[in-house]
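Annotated sample (chain length 216).
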Amino acid sequence: MTSETNFIICKRQIIMTDKSTIMAQKAALRKQLNNILNSLTTDDITRQSDIVLEKVLKHPVYQAATSVSVYLSFDKEIQTDKLLQDIFKSGKKCYIPRFRKGVPDMEMVHLKSLDDYEQLPLNRWNIRQPRDDDKRRSVFDDGSLDVVLMPGLGFTRDGHRLGRGKGYYDGFLTRCFKRLSARPATLALAFQQQIVPSIPCTETDVRVDEVLFVEE
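Output written by the structure step:
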């Protein structure tokens, strides 16, 4: 075995070790943040959600957007129900996530109206989403998207993001940057308790443009 081969093997081992260390650090941080989020009261969730909502509505990127993708919130996320109402009230085109069994990638599909939303069934996370057999246009069918309003588990002030471990948004944004003619803006919505000093990252983690949260 040559010295060059030895060097390549050692380099791969270092990379694998570094990645496993980062994954362990992420898992520990997820556990810590989940515990914090589970301790939030309903009143605090409502209060912070209303403040972050106002930040979104006043944000020039959102105001200028004609097409928006928005996550449909569960109980321990910044609530997006009022935001969904404004998207339709202001005439913006709306896209929402869909997760399908056996399909590794998250889709972002068209939501027609609030009535359309109310008719959607609940998935296993108690979030409304279109059925697997519900044929809908996706962001990539339509070819454009102005802004992505996205969730996460933890964030730094400068846009590093910790998701819930599935890589759904990182994968979706990577596809957006490759397939859409213009790169969409990315705004993450967070509780003050989700802001951390640093987040371990790998080369597949996508940094968001801005994190909107309650500064206290």
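Annotation: DSSP finds seven helices and eight strands in the chain.
Annotation: The CA atoms of residues 35 and 205 lie 23 Å apart.
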